[in-house]
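This follows on from our talk about sequence and fold. Go ahead and set the record down below:
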Amino acid sequence: MQASESVRECEFDLRDLRRALGQFATGVNVVTARSGDGRPVGMTVNSFSAVSLEPPLVSWCVRREAPSAPAFTAASHFAVHVLDAAHAHIARQFSTPSPDKFAEVDFNDGIADLPVLAGVIAHFECRNMRTVDVGDHIMLIGQIERYAARGGEPLIFHSGGFRSLSDIVT
């Protein structure tokens, strides 16, 4: 194919594509920030990834149409929390629309007044370095300014449901 040729978009059954992509097991994370008016915002994501050690960079993606997308893209900082296998209830709470996703969730103030969830197996407090428009999502790239990791068994998402490593590996 020559560079001048246009690339045809493949037509997929989106439900089937989502099912196929769901065969890739991912960790479950909650990302938090502060909106411009100071409200804590948060959402469950499975798109978190390490990007670089020098400098220490991570990325995650938010659907462009997500209600909290403007708050995350405008925030100076965000925190990524790696959930423990026992935190499926927190993942569900932050993945559904709610006027207060932080209700009955323990958190402390981190860098730049970030809401940092208590009891997670790791968290990364990041300066929002760059946003990149990618398809129907926005990728956020952050430089880690502070982190903590206590370890534990992570919560996993696979085939449309939450799992633990002990569920998968026998």
